[in-house]
Request: fold
Amino acid sequence: MKPLLEIENLRVTFPTPRGDLEVVRGLSFTLGRERLGIVGESGSGKSMTGRSILKLVRAPGKVTADKLTFDGIDLLTRSERQMRPIRGARISMVMQDPKFSLNPVMTIGEQIAEALLTHQRLPRREVNNRVLTMLESVRIADPERVAKLYPHEVSGGMGQRVMIAMMLIPEPDLLIADEPTSALDVSVQAQVLDIIDELVKRKGMGLIFISHDLNLVSSYCDRILVMNTGEVVEECQAGELMNAKHPYTRGLIASIPRLDETRTELPVLDRSAWAKK
Reply:
């Protein structure tokens, strides 16, 4: 089966007073209709990879690649106008701190409806029904009341679920989820992941799950990329993450606290084991 997403030699560069800085360096991978996890420290290039796929890196940032195709579409040659039918409808992205992506002067219901109406023409009654159904799907009690609220009237966790509802209501072919459940408690986190998982299985949606939580990614995803300083240092099946060989991945795993912790202090990454001289 042909991959849903193909990336070869992706590079993202920003100018600095000391010269150009590459934040993504020669990244290559393919994605089928599966759950791909991308893990690494802050600043490793995970989020910038997701933004690059949607062409959301603005000047003076520069994105280049030998290949960047989605479902046979060459994204590199697409203009801003040509990207509009793709963003949201076919590729959605849940940003970090999604509550801050909500419009403060529109109600929750209006914003979720807008995410649907931007790409489809539907009767108002059907739109309202789908909005309420989606709010119920992300485990929001009393969706009719919440739909009438403004973003500042809901909690951080609820705002995050609202943003997830906005991204899922068009039922995209690819969802890029950047720390989508970081503000949710464990029980709600599991429920939201179940919703995403149901879409992956029912609609054949592809998922790029960006996270710092190695345990969550290893239990939820099918395959994992480990990034460090803009590069993929290791790729493995999710179930094999704890058997990773690269010293950076081993260092990340060693730094995870355990319930039966007996170490007096968590180890510090020894970057000399792999860092370029």
Remarks:
- Residues 5-257+265-273 form a domain with the Rossmann fold fold (CATH 3.40.50.300).
- The mean pLDDT is 88.
- Residues 186-203 form the longest helix (18 residues).
- The chain is about 30% helix and 25% strand.
